[in-house]
Amino acid sequence: MSRTILLTNDDGVHSPAFKALWRHLLDLKIGDVVAVTPEHEMSAAGKSITLHKPLRVNKISSKIHGDKYGHVYLISGTPADAVVIAFKLILTEKPCITVSGINIGDNITLDNLFTSGTIAAAIQSLLNDVPAIAFSVEIPTSIDRRQLKVSNFNFHGRLAAEITRFMIENPLSKTQVLNINFPFNLGKNTGVELTSLAKIKFENYILERKDPRGAPYYWIGSSEINVSKSDEGTDLYALTVQKAISISPISLDVSTLILKNPESIYRREQLENDRKILLSLQKRIREILSSEAH
Asked: Does the domain formed by 4-198+229-291 have CATH 3.40.1210.10?
């Protein structure tokens, strides 16, 4: 079995959270890490594929941390493009896992599931029968994202790398993507929750402006919804209320259950095995949190 890890994201190679994860994956020596990212930030690109223009690939050397450098392939397209190019052009064999992130900003709720480039890269991987994890970290509104450095994400990167090692050794069935969201502040008392996806985190609204000629143009804005007790058990509640790590398994079988025989949908042994793996992962993360001095 290949021990190659495909590392990608939607923020681009200069993201400090991406570099923190890259560094710790290399330090753990759990496999050959091949980094393939969009050349520009592609947040909210979803799982779009570039069909209307050619794609270009540029291999460069990028500083990871301190005096450590690594090669990265820059793709002039979307996160999903990056995964397709990696599988079909760059890699000689399929990787054992694809790791997407760490995204600067959380990716929780169904709304983000369909718009996040970070999650989309993981989904694109699983569509090619390669297990995948999407990592994101919530950033408080009080923090200026432009001032964030690799050191701000050191423990997030270490934890994400350890989770990656665990999932390589304990793979889920090939219908599940893991979507993991970290709170910005991690400590020994940080909770770890297995969650479902809430519906939305934001309500959209429209801002109308006028250009110098008086013609209208529009911005789509958003405001956070109020989280209630009814949201308990969701990624939204875990991250925003409990300030806990949220682990959401996402099934690629999105067809309605009404038209199916439940006995044929849920292969019970497989699901039970996945559940045991996730509970073991939850326990492992708690052990790391309680023992880590950072």
From this structure: yes
Residue ranges covered by each domain of the chain: 4-198+229-291
State the sign of the Cα–Cα–Cα–Cα dihedral 229, 232, 236, 242.
positive
Question: Can you say whether the dihedral through the CA atoms of 58, 60, 65, 69 is positive or negative?
Answer: positive
CA-based R_g, the chain, Å: 19
Q: Determine contact, residues 99/35, Cβ cutoff 8 Å.
A: no
**Vertex 224: Cα angle to 107 and 250 (nearest 5):** 25
List Cα–Cα distances, 250 to 30, 37, 91, 184, 199, in angstroms: 25, 23, 26, 23, 14
What is the tens place of the pLDDT at every residue in 13-55? 999 999 999 999 999 999 999 999 999 988 888 899 999 999 9
pTM for the complete prediction? 0.91
| Under 8 Å between Cβ of 102 and 69 | no
